[in-house]
Every structure is written in structure tokens, then in C-alpha cells.
Amino acid sequence: MQRDCQGEKNAIEIDLCAWVKNIKYILELDVSRLSRSIALQIGNLSTMQSSIATLHLFVIFDTLYERSISLKLKN
Q1: Radius of gyration of the chain (CA)
Q2: How far apart are alpha carbons 51 and 64 in whole angstroms?
Q3: Sign of the torsion angle spanned by Cα atoms 27, 29, 31, 34
Q4: Residue 9 and residue 43: Cα distance in Å, rounded?
Q5: pTM, two decimal places
Q6: Residue 2: its pLDDT value, please?
Q7: End-to-end CA distance of the chain
């Protein structure tokens, strides 16, 4: 990832650029695979805990989706 950031001026800018590119890559990963993994973990919780965890996950995924769209629109 740092190879893509060689146009930056100093080491801090290169590191920041690489970090942003890594975040963008993570946001573009297969969310369904991540969802299945999380669903297996939620399956081990009680019904009430499962409902609360699922609600939190919807909020997290919604936020990540909005941010990924925002990043794509900026580029």
C-alpha cells in the first residue's frame, strides 16, 4: 500500500496515505463473509443479547456502508 503513496512529501504523509488506503481496502472486503462470522458468534448469545448485538451490527454496517460510499464519491 505504501508504494501507492510515494508522491507524498514525508514519512508521516506516506504512513497516513497508506493507512487511508488500507481502510478503503477493508471497507471493500466481502461483507457477507464477515456477516456470517459474526452471526456464528451471535448464535452463542442469549436471545436478548443476540437482539442487542444484531441491532448494534446493523448500525455499524450502515455506518461503514455510508463511509465507503462517501470515500468512493470523493475519489
Answers
A1: 17
A2: 20
A3: negative
A4: 48
A5: 0.36
A6: 47
A7: 17
